[in-house]
Amino acid sequence: MKAKELEKLFEDGKDISEYLDLSKTARPNEKLQRVNVDFPVWMVEALDKESKRLGVPRQSVIKFWVAEKIGDYDAS
Is position 76 within any domain? Predict the structure, then answer.
């Protein structure tokens, strides 16, 4: 597929993931650390409602909202 065709699909809001090789993707300088957080049921239900509305996983909503709240926090 030519780049112009892929770009057109993307701009039209189509799913282009089948055309991408994501096997070697990485986020530079973003070492992950797993954490467990307990939420009340009402909060999980609200998160699920928002994740469904946005069409993204619950974890993505949580990450986005936390990142939005802490901004460009510098841990150094």
Answer: no
